[in-house]
Amino acid sequence: MHLQKRQEETQQVIDAIQNWLKKSLEHTLPKGKLGTALTYLHNQWDHLTLFLKDSRIPLDNNPAENAIRPFVIGHKNWLFSDPPKGAQASANLYSLIETAKANNIEPYTYLCRVFEQLPRAETEEDLHKLLPWS
């Protein structure tokens, strides 16, 4: 029911955008900024319209954008993190924390479990079991 309503309300708009995109690609220099953007849109079309086939896919990524906002704002503070491996480790940790939150898991408890079980993980399947959505 939800998927059908989504398709009814958006398919016409998506079709109009696709028609505009096809016409615009024919009349735009491919190496210019607009041409590059249009080519990117064209190449990502299947991903963009996937929400019309699966109602579990959200219409926007606002929750993800809101989750990373504090880190984007703090980016200038971490721009010159040294050493680079420390900056990468911080980014990985922030990603784990925000992914845990997005899956309604208390981050501290989740990280304790991960750090306790990670040394015993021997296979890729063991690692997948440690991911927040598992």
List the helices and strands and how they pair.
Blueprint: H1 2-26, H2 33-43, H3 45-48, H4 62-73, H5 75-78, H6 84-102, H7 107-117, H8 124-129
Helix pairs in contact: 1-2, 6-7
Describe the fold and architecture.
- This protein has 134 residues and is mainly alpha-helical.
- The protein folds into two domains: 51 residues; 68 residues, no CATH class.
- It is 69% helix and 0% strand.
- The protein contains eight helices and no strands.
- It is extended, with a radius of gyration of 21 Å.
- The mean pLDDT is 87.
The biggest beta sheet, please?
none
Shape: extended
| Order of helical and strand elements | HHHHHHHH
Annotation, overall tally of beta strands:
0
Task: Name its key features.
134 residues; 2 domains; 8 helices; 0% strand
Q: Concise description?
A:
By secondary structure, the chain is mostly helical. It has helices spanning 2-26, 33-43, 45-48, 62-73, 75-78, 84-102, 107-117, 124-129.
